Amino acid sequence: MKHDALRNLIAEARWFGGKGRDWSLTGVRRVGELPDAPDGLRVAIELAELTFANPSTGSGQAAETELYQLPLAYYSEPQDRIGHAWVGEWDDEDFGRSFVYDALHDRESMALWLAAFATAGLDSARPTDVRGQLAFHRVPGHDLDLEAHSTLFSGEQSNSSVAFGEDSLMKVFRKVTPGVNPDIAIHQVLTEAGSSHVAALYGWLDLVDDETNTTIQLAMLQQFLRTASDGWDLALASVRNLFAEADLHADEVGGDFAGEAARLGVALAEVHADLAAHFPVEQRDGAATGDLASAMEGRLDAALDVVPDLARYEAGLRATFARLRDLDGVEVQQVHGDLHLGQTLRTVKGWKIVDFEGEPAKPLAVRLQPDSVWRDVAGMLRSFDYAPRVVGMTGVGFDLGAEAEQRDYRASEWAARNRAAFLDAYVSQRGADLGDAARALLDAYLADKVVYEAVYEARNRPGWLSIPLAALEEST
Ligand SMILES: Nc1ncnc2c1ncn2[C@@H]1O[C@H](COP(=O)(O)OP(=O)(O)O)[C@@H](O)[C@H]1O
Ligand SMILES: O=P(O)(O)O[C@H]1O[C@H](CO)[C@@H](O[C@H]2O[C@H](CO)[C@@H](O)[C@H](O)[C@H]2O)[C@H](O)[C@H]1O
């Protein structure tokens, strides 16, 4: 009963990244219980082990397992108010007959996380509260609002984020791996460095797993950015503005985005500088750029099997990657790793960058590797190409048929203007020219990202595959 209910919960969850693969639920382990639950409620954190019949590409394993975190509310009576979060009903060996709900949707349950974090902050000399295998850590400097009600973010993606009023936000990591979670580690460093471009870290929850003698980072508590607007939504609004004006250029319409794009460039350069000051920076030699070229070529080889249309652009892409072999070396450092406009938030206090977890599909060891800053810059530049193409495709706010040519011209104009504003501001904030070596690196990361996007779109949004392919067509 429990097994089937949890399997259904996982299969239907938005955050489950294994959809479409052949998997089974091979274990469920209760790793902790939230302290101080009221009568009639027990709240448990359980880890579900999933075994995949076919390993993901390149893992070289016969079968692989992944761990997913499931916070569950066990009530002794049914709770109609959270019927939408129903998981199932069963006899639990610790809690007895239970009516079980997804705890993330339940205010009573979420208040227990907040209270546990608050308790951990009571003694600033020992900002960690250990409850069984759970260790609640607090970063001093902010008093949590314990009256705040929780709201689960509807736009949840790889993880589940819960806002506590307008005070704090807790991200519950869904797919978990033993070891350091880069999102927590980077937020901690940037918070201590006083960075104005991230939400301040307030705390985090670790599972100190006795069975495997490892630590698994389960959740992160951070500042709620009250006045935040999503960078991707703002960019789309700006494009629509331009498309609605038949006779005006990008710099003449009200919703021009170039000033924001430039401020984003400055913000990214400042974040990179802070990361370079607090994580190792390495100068790697020419062999490393050769390895980088080989890695990109390898990804192209794999992508050609998934998206045969890429073959038309193969020669140009290979030439771009091969240029890396002429470089003397490459500097690497901690970067964001998965940056695009959807990872940026505009607040009244400027741009913030979120989600430093790297690409969730990549193994943790790969996500922790230092990389070139040009990977992040390329990610943002690709987003400036996407925005007008997405508006053009969906046709919201203008007459598609009659204005197709005009629209394509304007899409290119918007993308070029904002790419230039972002890149110029980034480069000048770093205080260096974009020399030939940096240009070669940037071009290679851009090409690598387009190849990645072609595979991502083919697998996730086939209707959008034309976007990366059109970018390749334009650059040939
Ligand atoms: N500190 C914050 N305050 C307000 N909203 C936030 C904050 N951090 C992230 N968000 C919003 O929550 C969404 C999900 O956050 P993200 O870190 O990207 O989660 P995921 O790991 O699930 O992709 C983001 O798109 C952003 O709009
Ligand atoms: O889920 P993540 O945010 O980690 O990133 C994945 O999904 C992104 C889409 O949500 C995808 O980004 C691509 O589409 C964006 C518009 O939806 C665009 O702004 C990006 O430039 C483009 O790469 C991303 O590639 C993927 O890893």
From TrEMBL:
Arranged from A to Z, the UniProt key words for this protein are: ATP-binding, Carbohydrate metabolism, Glycogen biosynthesis, Glycogen metabolism, Kinase, Nucleotide-binding, Transferase
Instruction: Identify which top EC class this enzyme belongs to.
Output: transferase
Pfam families documented for this protein: Mak_N_cap (PF18085)
Q: Which residues form the Maltokinase N-terminal cap domain?
A: 11-106
Q: Which reaction does it catalyse?
A: D-maltose + ATP = alpha-maltose 1-phosphate + ADP + H(+)
One Gene Ontology MF term = kinase activity
Q: What top-level branch of life does the organism fall under?
A: Bacteria
Q: Where are the transmembrane segments?
A: none
Listed EC numbers: 2.7.1.175
Q: Name one GO biological process term.
A: glycogen biosynthetic process
State whether keyword Kinase applies.
yes
The pathway is: Glycan biosynthesis; glycogen biosynthesis
Q: How does it assemble?
A: Monomer.
What family does this chain come from, according to its entry? Belongs to the aminoglycoside phosphotransferase family.
Protein's name in the database: Maltokinase
Q: To which species is this protein native?
A: Nocardioides alpinus
